[in-house]
Amino acid sequence: MAKPLSEYNRKRDFQITAEPSGTESAAKKRKASALSFVIQKHDARHLHYDFRLELDGVLKSWAVPKGPSLDPSQKRLAVHVEDHPLSYGDFEGSIPAGQYGAGDVIVWDRGVWQPHDDPQQAYAGGKLKFTLVGEKLSGDWTLVRTRLKGSGDKEQWLLIKEKDPQARPATEYDIVQAEPDSVLSTASIKPPASAKPKSKSPAKPKAGAKKTTATHAIPDQFTPQLATLVERAPEGDWQYEIKFDGYRILARIRDGEVRLFTRNGHDWTERLPRQAKALQALKLKDSWLDGEVVSLNSDGLPDFQALQNAFDIGRSLDIIYYLFDAPFLDGQDQREAPVEQRRAALKAALAGSRSKLLRFSDAFAANHRDIFESACDLSLEGVIGKRLGSPYVSRRSNDWVKLKCRLRQEFVIVGYTRPQGSRSGFGALLLAVNDDTGLVYAGRVGTGFDQAALKNIYAQLKTLERDSSPLRKPLTSAQARGVHWVEPSLVGEVQFAEWTREGVVRQAAFVGMRTDKPAAQIVHEVPRKAQSSTAPSADHGVKISHPDRVIDPQSGTQKQQLAQFYSSISQWLMPFLHQRPVSLLRAPEGIEGEQFFQKHSERLAIPHIKQLDPALDPGHARLMEIDTVQALIGAVQMGTIELHTWGATWDKIETPDLFVLDLDPDPALPWKAMLEAAQLTLSVLDELGLEAFVKTSGGKGLHLVVPLARRDGWDTVKAFAKAVAQFMTQQLPERFTATSGPKNRVGKIFIDYLRNARGASTVAAYSVRARPGLPVSVPVSRQELKNLRGAQQWTVANLLQRLQGVKADPWQGYANRQKITRKMWDKLGARPPQ
Prior knowledge:
Residues 1-27, 184-218, 525-544 are annotated as: Disordered. By secondary structure, the protein is of the alpha+beta class.
């Protein structure tokens, strides 16, 4: 009898493909959870959809050429293929040429499936009836085996949508066309080209070869590594280069053909023909090279305006391509090799070039402070630092940092003013950045334009005029006077002195238009504070020992950085800690080490912590309160990551002033199910006459917080929260459970009311969670709820960006005045405790 996944493993070389290996056992025990399903959109020889159902520890898989249809009359062919490992459900990426199934893969939909009968018997019998609960697909479906003969010995099945409220005629709606993109990321698959180039199967790496490089079929598309903006150079071993004032360009060399792409994947080969020809002359095997194209002024320094002019008139001869990295070079995958090794190999490859259009970006040998000062003296944009020994990663990374001589970034252009005096075109451009709620005004720029720029930009603006403002919040009448609004599609780069407290730029000067960056990606860039890795440092008078200890390997966040993060959000966090007993989740060695939950001060001397009256919790050590920023930083110094608070303040500890409903889902459920559950629960609370406030848990679910007047005791408040949970379970037993334990929430959402007992606690608003990536529990408004992407949407890396863009408190109107009434108990069909 063949071993589980043996066919899957036989078809793949895991030294080449990034797909997960099928080493997991089919009999491997999993935590109690619903059965998962996933549909992957797969652009192989032909675009198709891989439909996978979890059963017996693997993903039973079918290839559906046309994808699922919501029309019951359309019976879609589903070709049964080999079982896949459960971990394949998270796979997105490009399967290299020469490998089985070569092509791009995205997760098109995922969630849970609920078999109507015994799933093993139904599968063996060739007729599976089931319900899907996914981000895109829902309702009842059938997979039935046919006697049709296909190629080889593969079984031919049919995937059929049952007639139910989710069914829709194909003439009305095609879900494959309407929702083409990934539910896991921002990835998408473009329509297939008419023909794909044939590639030979790549050779396997030789035994004993170094792991830093490997023979590799390069991907069709590639995302560059991005640098993190910092205030000052970090300590450690770094290499510094000029920060070029140009366009980031990636070069793909495959089968001798050179294509040049912007950082967002736009093909600019036709705009840079001479540079492509110069690269082709190197005669490199398959490669991805990273660099920046610039134009130099008469002093030999980068000139962004000159670069734009060169593109405008099609004069690529004036454009120089500076190359600084080679993630793939001459058929070798170098991404895991140290940056200095990759750059040395690139420099050697460029040594034979006779073209003046290709140059290697040399690193400086001087001290980084001298380099930065010299760059600023020469009016350069700044410098880029790269940590020695670091790999190449296709994302923004702390291993690459940028120091800018003057603040400078891209802005979305949302309007313009009329010109004054003899000036033509326009007077000033109105600028904006994106935050989680839309476009936010960021000021205006009226200098830095020459006559040609005024004319060209004005011509573009005229075609984009609109009647209304695209900004989330209207400007004052004075700010909006004389403004012509435009569609927010143009992006311009601006340098400026500083951001004001109101979030607008000061002393702005225009640099140039950016056609390589989409408006939707433009946000307020916030410099990360560089950290010392050599000596203890202090925060608010608290000495932080081991400041460079990495507490979260995924984000690379260090202990000192966590202390500074908590300090930076203290004005938002402290009101939720005020006068409340606090419990601390401590992870002294980081989130991967041992964790401790501490409710009492005990013998641990936490700097500046407030110890409460021992009478509040007789028989135990004193309860604690964090009442100052010093105490907050002191808790971080002692390894604290999470902050949990009681539902009452210590001055009236026997009468809670809130209750919490923690919506805790089966991890297999899609996020769409969580949002629907939250809306349903909020509707019930609205019907009861109770205003509730929502926050992300920073874990898997959402917290609904209901403020109360300090009247009822713990038993009454807990019993009422339980009554709400049980009411939801009685009304929708297929969706909710009020019984704790993983086995009771399979395919459901547990409404956890148990946090409302005396001595219990809930993670505080704006507390970090001790999970990979360090997510944060964040309050959101009811209006924001439908657009939430997940419970871990905000982390220590991006929360400040949200807070800087929030103009109003998302919990505006929160007040402890609501009372639990007899009428509410009656509506729930429950009785208060006697």
